[in-house]
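User: Hi! I'm working on a homework problem where we have to compare a predicted structure to a textbook description. Could you give me the structure for the chain below?
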Amino acid sequence: MYNIKAAAKILDMPKVTIRSWETRYSAITPARTESGHRLYSDQNLEDLKWLKIQVQNNGMKISEAVKKLHASRKQFITPTGDFSQSNNSEYSEQINQLFQAAAEMDAERFNYLLDLHFSLFHHQKVFFSIIAPLMIRIGEAWEDGVISVAHEHMITHIVQQRFNQFFRVFPTSPTLPKVMALSPSGEQHQLGLLLFTLFLRENGFSVVYIGPDTPLDGLEEMVVKHNFKLMCLSIASPALMGVANQYMDTLSKAKPEMQFILGGQGVVEQKNNSNRWYLGTDLKVWQQWLAEQNF
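Assistant: Happy to help. Predicted structure tokens:
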């Protein structure tokens, strides 16, 4: 539980805005101490964070955002045919079934369906053609207030466990460069990073997976001390291109022979150079890049 000062700091929001959204729009109902001071739960903070995104990023009125949030508490929306582009794929039925299990918070069925799909299809098809579009849909559903952050966290945890299981399956080659995989500070999404890490592990690379929202501080010493030769970064928003380039500039100075790969939906087209590749999200581009290397 957090007092209003701590909540305001975590959310980077003025206390007066939090109070206004609570009292005027009934956005949340925090607990109270015996002396009447507000106490905010993790769910309260997640709700306020979601509302902030709708207002600041999506231009929605706070009153409309609150209505949407409360509506999502009462019912879940069954996805329709035009929910996302993934419905047009040959795996739309599998994606829809997994989404429904996620919406109902049925972890047992969700895991059963994943087991079934991995038994029926090649693992690459499951990760790239079923899980990837599913996670995009779940992210969109959270932003739209269709599912709560608790649903998103549950599914993300299960999916990451599946990635980790496959990371351990593939043998690594000592002749290939040692890789570090991370997303820079401010990047919370890790789907693209997980997919590219899987691609590298499939092809024999030893990859140390650091994960999302990794600060630059300390990385210079780490890459030199542990002899990392290749770093892959992933960003979901073009707004983080500058941050990603800063990481590569700084680490290049610390270790000039270091090579970098930048992927993810946030990558804007840039010209590759001697130690940097901008690969985006296309698996065929990744395969072409690997075929052209002399590792």
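For your comparison, note the following. Confidence is low (pLDDT under 50) at residues 74-88. The CA atoms of residues 8 and 15 lie 6 Å apart. Good luck with the assignment!
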